[in-house]
Amino acid sequence: MRCQTEQLCFFATLQVVTGLYLGNIRDSEDRDSLRRHGVTHILSVHNGAKPVLEVNHSPSFQR
């Protein structure tokens, strides 16, 4: 999904198959949208990977 402006770009993920979404780092930082979409786990792939949210019960992070 392409956004005209940064303000219009909210949870710009793509559902690949049922229950599997592909998104960007900004999406992974949006706790409310993650909760609304039922996201419970995040796989983060990038240089210098580190958890973007505090470790808690949801979402969970593994290296």
Automatic annotation (TrEMBL):
Record's catalysed reaction(s): O-phospho-L-threonyl-[protein] + H2O = L-threonyl-[protein] + phosphate; O-phospho-L-tyrosyl-[protein] + H2O = L-tyrosyl-[protein] + phosphate; O-phospho-L-seryl-[protein] + H2O = L-seryl-[protein] + phosphate
InterPro entries found in the cross-reference section: Prot-tyrosine_phosphatase-like
GO molecular function: protein serine/threonine phosphatase activity; protein tyrosine phosphatase activity
Keywords, in A-Z order: Hydrolase, Protein phosphatase, Signal
GO annotation, cellular component aspect: cytosol
Transmembrane feature ranges: none
Leader peptide range in chain numbering: 1-19
GO BP annotations, alphabetical order: signal transduction
Family, per entry: Belongs to the protein-tyrosine phosphatase family. Non-receptor class dual specificity subfamily.
Descriptive protein name: Dual specificity phosphatase 22
